[in-house]
Amino acid sequence: MLSQVERGETSPTLQVATRIAAGLELRLSQLLRLDEDGAVTVVRAADRRRSPGHGRAGHSYEILTPPLPGQRAELSRHTLAPGAVTGGPGDPPMHEPGSRETALIESGAVLLHCDGGAERLSAGDCVTFDADLPHHFENPGPDEAVLLAVVSAGLRRS
User: Fold this and answer.
1) Do 130 and 63 share a structural domain?
2) Count of domains for the chain
3) C-alpha distances in angstroms, 157 versus 7, 98, 142, 143?
4) 130: domain range?
């Protein structure tokens, strides 16, 4: 049924739309885009979604984009203390199949570990990689490192 709705072949009943919203972890108003105030959405610095307190030691992040329905990209800002990592070698991929990630190193230096390889990146460097592969950033230096990351969702497969 969902694929028929996506292709515009049928219109869901209110009951079906409610079930679709619940499956996507959205409110019905978000699914129908009734709670949008217009074409521009601003996320104020004080309103950013921040990493939970139980994150990895020395790694904090903020999600800078708003949680809008249908959004296919997310911008986040990560801060890594010396020696900190965003994940580990045994962690499963966090992003859906087909996702891409682009990261800009704002300050400091990091190592990107991706699919068994490693790339050293310094302030001003930008990297793009397949985000559905096992990966993590590591700060091997003596100074704090900050990076901006954009994850774009993969192509949906039917």
Assistant:
1) yes
2) 2
3) 13, 9, 43, 42
4) 45-152
Could you please report the per-residue DSSP string of the chain? -HHHHHTTS----HHHHHHHHHHTT--HHHHTTTT--SS-----GGG-EE--TTS-TTEEEEE-S---TT--EEEEEEEE-TT-BSS-TTPPP-S-TT-EEEEEEEESEEEEEETTEEEEEETT-EEEEETTS-EEEE--SSS-EEEEEEEEPPPP--
Extract the residue ranges of the chain whose pLDDT is less than 50. Answer: 54, 156-158
Question: CA–CA separation, 107 vs 125, rounded Å?
Answer: 10
**Residue 57: predicted pLDDT:** 84
- Residue 157: per-residue pLDDT: 44
Q: What does pTM read for this prediction?
A: 0.71
CA 61 → CA 53, 73, 153, distances in Å? 11, 16, 19
